[in-house]
Amino acid sequence: MPDVEGSERSLPNIVITGTPGTGKSTHAQLLVDASPVPLRHLNVSEIAKEKKLYENYDEEWQTYIVDEDKVLDELEPLTDAGGLVIDWHTCDVFPERWVDLVVVLRCDHTLLWDRLEKRGYSLKKIQENNESEIMQTVLDDAKESYAEEIVVELRSDSTEDLESNVDRIVSWIQNWRRDRGFSDQP
Ligand SMILES: Nc1ncnc2c1ncn2[C@@H]1O[C@H](COP(=O)(O)OP(=O)(O)O)[C@@H](O)[C@H]1O
Which of 98, 101, 140, 172 is the most exposed place for a label (fewest CB within 10 A)? Predict the structure, then answer.
């Protein structure tokens, strides 16, 4: 794990990414609840909606087109303290210096289809996301944007996966802190 130049944060910043429906928000919330050190879940889509950090609403795709520069401006002041769990399907916009770990969630595409159907997505939107998951678009974006050692691909098909992923990330946080001389507790 390389040291992030100039970073003195005592808590890592973690990006949890993946195709919509793979389980980002569920993982992020469970991680915040399970972590012995304080973490903060930032659901970028929700924040963009609340703070109107979007360019417009795309009727055809039934989605907000988020203004990435505004999102970065909003998050920037929070990054120094660390402890952020940034939850978004787009991962390649965050500066490398902000990010200590990128978790890319992957899901079987038939399971994903069911999850997105339950969410009430249009057929077009389900198909687009399903294809994107099959093509591993988010994983490729993550690998292109961050050092290989900090990108971790995790399966998110079942609740067993969910639990073991959260345990794994908690252990990773503890190790990250130990490597930097911080204790296991806050
Ligand atoms: N590993 C998993 N096993 C079973 N169900 C899951 C898993 N991950 C997510 N889900 C379910 O899939 C749906 C979408 O999860 P969510 O966390 O909202 O995805 P995202 O934030 O990536 O869009 C939710 O109903 C959630 O309970």
Answer: 140
